[in-house]
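ok new one. same drill as before - structure tokens go in, u give me an amino acid for every spot. 322 of them this time. try not to just spam alanines like last time pls lmao
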């Protein structure tokens, strides 16, 4: 049997595909990733982002026996239990698979180092679900109520001491402090990829987060204006233990906030020395938000005020003549 796996739009190794690889290799199958003959026996394609769903459908014309999955395809679809219980196949991805997907402006040596880190890291969930029920988030519907599913030790890849934690709300976990202690004791470097909920921070949790090594900035979100007070208090508390320049705050725009409120959140975060990062809820939405995201995320705001940002000024002129 020959199995083809397609990682359609991921930036890091795909946990579901790695589990599928383990499962089929245990059955004696030959497994391919992304590049394989058309006549393989079965193809699985993972789509992470909803805006890529239509693009992925083109693969149906190439592989008649293809099955789609992933958050961007159908949030109600899950791996079969016999696949879910498998350990990830850390041999599935090669350096070239990671390297060619890394974006951003970086030197070749830096890009190679980052790709190697991603290739050799451990990845997985220790908990599933979330205690929140935010209107813009699919996690409660997809994963249900908060539950424990694994231990930190279960995520370790023997090739490195880096782990990517996919837990959706790490600070809501009653075992969070114990898990931080295990991360510290095992001398692991962790990427809490889904961020933390700063509204749930306590002195003990903030201290525990400061005592572990983080692969990149510690990040969280400020999505709605109604969260302002609890978000600001959480940032202040975290800043007592982790310097603000090591933070990143994701700002959801295009959901239910006005542009004035978006700008207010941006200014407030900058005042607190926290790096803001704009996330657009509706990719096909307001052109102004797309320019705003580039201005913020590209750190152009550090050298140019919004009302002086030439790409947006040019877009306004074009719109006025349309």
């Amino acid at each position: 049997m020959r199995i083809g796996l397609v990682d359609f739009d991921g930036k890091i190794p795909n946990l579901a595909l790695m589990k599928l690889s383990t499962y089929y290799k245990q059955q004696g199958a030959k497994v391919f990733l992304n590049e394989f003959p058309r006549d393989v026996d079965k193809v699985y394609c993972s789509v992470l982002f909803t805006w890529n769903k239509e693009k992925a459908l083109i693969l149906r014309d190439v592989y008649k026996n293809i099955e789609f999955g992933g958050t961007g395809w159908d949030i109600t679809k899950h791996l079969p239990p016999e696949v879910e219980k498998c350990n990830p196949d850390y041999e599935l991805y090669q350096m070239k698979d990671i390297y060619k997907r890394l974006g951003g402006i970086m030197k070749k040596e830096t890009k190679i180092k980052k790709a190697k880190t991603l290739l050799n890291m451990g990845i997985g969930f220790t908990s599933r679900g979330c205690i929140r029920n935010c209107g813009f988030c699919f996690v409660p519907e997809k994963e249900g109520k908060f539950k424990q599913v694994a231990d930190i030790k279960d995520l370790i890849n023997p090739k490195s001491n880096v782990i990517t934690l996919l837990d959706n709300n790490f600070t809501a976990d009653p075992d969070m402090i114990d898990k931080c202690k295990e991360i510290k004791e095992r001398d692991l470097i962790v990427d809490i990829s889904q961020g933390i909920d700063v509204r749930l921070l306590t002195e003990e949790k903030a201290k525990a987060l400061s005592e572990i090594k983080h692969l990149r900035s510690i990040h969280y979100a400020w999505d709605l204006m109604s969260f302002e007070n609890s978000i600001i208090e959480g940032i202040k508390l975290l800043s007592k233990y982790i310097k603000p320049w090591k933070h990143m705050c994701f700002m959801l725009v295009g959901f239910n906030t006005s542009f004035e409120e978006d700008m207010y959140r941006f200014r407030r975060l900058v005042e607190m020395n926290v790096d803001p990062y704009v996330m657009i809820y509706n990719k096909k939405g307001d052109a102004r938000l797309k320019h705003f995201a580039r201005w913020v995320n590209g750190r152009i705001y550090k050298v140019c005020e919004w009302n002086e940002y030439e790409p947006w000024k040019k877009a306004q002129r074009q719109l006025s003549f349309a």
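The first strand starts at residue 2 and ends at 7. and btw The chain has a mean pLDDT of 93.
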